[in-house]
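Recall that a protein's primary structure is simply its ordered list of amino acids. Everything else, from secondary elements to tertiary packing, is in principle encoded there. The following example makes that idea concrete.
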Amino acid sequence: MSATTIPLYSYEGALLQFITPERLKRLEGLGRVRAVVRRRTGQIARVMLHRLPDDPRPLRVEDYVGTRYSFRQHLADGHKCWRLRALGDKPSETELAPDELRVVTDCLTPA
């Protein structure tokens, strides 16, 4: 990175590239710049872009973690326990998985 280039970041905060001050002026003229971060000396530290309507939404932690199939349940007496989320179309307190997903129980043999 030289002294004449400015880091350009996406709306999510990912570094895209280094741009020149002329390109920054062009982006500001087009209304694409959300924020220009400056140092105390007035030098531009980085530039953030706006999110366009056709851009995908920013990634969240839930996108990586997925669906939680167990969660903490608060009981009436004040205790807490882990409860499993039922799978399938008809959630039930006792039948947590539909029959087509119960492959493991067919493989078990009594000891």
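Residues 21-30 form the longest helix (10 residues). Residues 6-49 form one domain.
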